[in-house]
Design a protein that fits this description.
Jelly Rolls, alpha+beta, 23% helix, 2 domains
């Protein structure tokens, strides 16, 4: 005689209804779950993804299609991680600062190329000098606004209570090469700010996502070559706060995925028809 060829696993739904599921279907379900777990492990280890595009020579009234398109791309990617917060600096007082709180849980500090304070401005620096004061010194990018951070070389640092997993900003007045955005997500990271040339300057949107990380400090470094201190402006800063969720180590996820498939193989073997007598 033969064993029970109609044997099924019973899966209980959330509503308490028992549903018979054959071993083949269970195997497929477990395999799919295992694949999902592995993909989740891969996603959590995605690392730093950078977003950068520029428009050379662009002033406040100029089109900036590349920068704007990249800002939109960043907003979409960052939005998948959480709420995208934007700092426009419109409520920040005009003038020099040693420490400023432009948003709840965010502190901004820095020192210019001479060791002095950085500045909130509502008019472009460099008026009356040669060249376009907007494209080579930077400007406001907030629609209907006027305030922005003027970085006179040196550094500008953002400190975030609770940390962030995404950060981006419009940076205008860029001329020199070698300028960066630096941070530590467990190891030292550096994102390049594009050089736009000493003659024309221009604007760029630069940002990054670092899913699942908790980055508490981000520094914009405005020192490059060939001129040393570069005079740039920062506006419409975006960030996504970190989500504190315990993350399983990759080896644990791989182990669980393997165990699920192994359990199915054992169960399927037990449910094979018995040999004819």
């Amino acid at each position: 005689m033969f064993g029970n060829t109609d044997a099924k696993f019973v899966v209980r739904s959330p509503r308490g209804v028992s549903v018979g599921v054959g071993p083949l279907r269970v195997g497929r379900w477990l395999s799919a779950l295992a694949v999902a777990l592995v993909l989740q492990a891969s996603a959590s280890q995605a690392g730093v993804v950078t977003y950068s595009a520029s428009d050379a020579g662009a002033g406040p009234s100029s089109p900036r299609p590349n920068s704007n398109a990249m800002a939109s791309t960043f907003d979409t990617a960052a939005g998948a991680l959480g709420t995208v917060h934007v700092i426009t600096f419109e409520s920040a007082p005009v003038g020099a600062f040693s420490s400023l709180t432009p948003a709840t849980g965010v502190t901004m500090t820095g020192a210019d190329g001479s060791g002095g304070n950085q500045t909130i401005r509502d008019t472009p620096a460099g008026l009356g000098t040669s060249g376009d004061p907007y494209s080579i010194h930077g400007y406001n990018t907030t629609s209907g606004g006027s305030h922005f951070v003027y970085v006179h070389g040196g550094t500008l640092t953002f400190a975030f209570v609770g940390g962030v997993q995404a950060f981006g900003a419009y940076i205008s007045g860029i001329q020199f090469s070698g300028e960066t955005i630096t941070f530590d997500d467990g190891s030292s990271q550096s994102v390049a700010i594009p050089a736009l040339g000493t003659a024309d300057g221009g604007i760029a949107f630069v940002g990054f996502t670092d899913a699942g990380k908790s980055i508490t400090s981000i520094t914009i470094n405005a020192t490059g070559v060939p001129g040393g201190s570069d005079f740039i402006s920062i506006d419409d800063v975006r960030y996504v706060s970190s989500t504190v969720v315990p993350e399983a180590a990759p080896w644990m996820i791989w182990s669980l995925a393997g165990s699920l498939v192994g359990l199915w193989l054992v169960g399927a073997k037990k449910l094979r028809p018995a040999s004819a007598v």
